[in-house]
Amino acid sequence: MRSAEPQLELEISAQSNLWQQFTGLFQGSTSYQLYDRQLLWLSILLIGFGLVMVASASLPVGERLTGNPFHFVIRHSVYLVLGTCAAIIVTMIPVAKWQQFSGTLCLLALLLLVVVLFAGHTVNGATRWIKVGPLTLQVAELAKLFFVIYLASYLDRRYDEVRKNWRGFIKALFVLGILTILLLMQPDLGSVIVLGVTAVGMLWIAGAKMIQFISLVITLLVAFVLLIMFEPYRMARVASFMDPWDDPFNSGYQLTQSLMAFGRGDWFGQGLGNSVQKLQYLPEAHTDFILSVIGEELGFMGVLSVIAISFVLVIKALLLGQRALRQKRPFSGYMAQGIGIWFAFQVGVNVGAASGLIPTKGLTLPLLSYGGSSLIITMAAVAILLRIDYEVRTGYRLARSAGEAAQQGPKRVRRKARGGA
């Protein structure tokens, strides 16, 4: 007798044109959506608001450095166009293709991190960029995305090995160790912390043993403390974080200017474009500390709105990963939740650094801050989320991954990942 149970998975032919796949994402009646429109509009809202605030915050520094107040606005607009093109291409790539080339992408990230050490562009004592014509590529941003893809693939393929023994768990962190060494040589401790926290979160979701999880957290905390203690400029940042007003014109200058911006903003701000701190008082006002300008011009309510929208976007990414896991799409689920953890922690670090809750770190506010590589990569990551959502909603499956195929076997033990599989 044929089962009356509805099928969650539909095998769709892979012969459809890439353009047809892309346009299919944006078609459908109001009763049945082929993609998460809320996720798309939240992202567009953050990107559009980011363009407005970059324009507001960068005019004085653009005038001072180049003589053209719209210098950074123009560059940011170019990066937006490039990011949009990248996002459109990404939405047309089946999720299975990312897993197929996950190892290659990870090797590419490692290679570029080595190249940047020898042929990189140095700014403020840090060598993190590769010049590509008039544009610059920050390799650490690529490494974040490619590492999430690689780790999601590894957890899919080695799920039982990660959960049952230390060897599989440690192997999952081997690539993270290499990335950490290369990033610290730039130096870029902020990206190392983001990668570490993302890895911890993904391993927890995959069901790593509590003792493994606790051991990893303790190891990362000890390493973090040692990295601070043995680097004078990091110790200076921690000291200024503890009491920025002790040296407000040297080590505590950036944080005190940021706090003054928040203080001037009060509840509803001084009005768009009326920031005083951006007038060459607050360093990096259009990049790492753009939230301070938002706080000064739009007040507490403006800051709260940005955090709330970012929080909703993160929650949607985590819930999407949970849905994918429930449909026995482990790679898609781990990747979606990895992107959500990455976004959540980076937003938290940026907000904490700008408001004086944690020591200052050179991390941008996703989708908002000026920064070409960061903007393009985060837009591509959002496009991956849209693609995962599309495949989960429609049942599209180009090919089964190794983990998915194993789950179909009669002897496969049902997954008990914390993500909801």
TrEMBL record:
PROSITE patterns: FTSW_RODA_SPOVE. GO terms for biological process: cell wall organization; FtsZ-dependent cytokinesis; peptidoglycan biosynthetic process; regulation of cell shape. GO terms for cellular component: cell division site; plasma membrane. It catalyses: [GlcNAc-(1->4)-Mur2Ac(oyl-L-Ala-gamma-D-Glu-L-Lys-D-Ala-D-Ala)](n)-di-trans,octa-cis-undecaprenyl diphosphate + beta-D-GlcNAc-(1->4)-Mur2Ac(oyl-L-Ala-gamma-D-Glu-L-Lys-D-Ala-D-Ala)-di-trans,octa-cis-undecaprenyl diphosphate = [GlcNAc-(1->4)-Mur2Ac(oyl-L-Ala-gamma-D-Glu-L-Lys-D-Ala-D-Ala)](n+1)-di-trans,octa-cis-undecaprenyl diphosphate + di-trans,octa-cis-undecaprenyl diphosphate + H(+). InterPro entries: Cell_cycle_FtsW-rel_CS (IPR018365), FtsW (IPR013437), FtsW/RodA (IPR001182). Belongs to the SEDS family. FtsW subfamily. This is Probable peptidoglycan glycosyltransferase FtsW. It comes from Aliidiomarina shirensis. The lineage of its organism: Bacteria, Pseudomonadati, Pseudomonadota, Gammaproteobacteria, Alteromonadales.
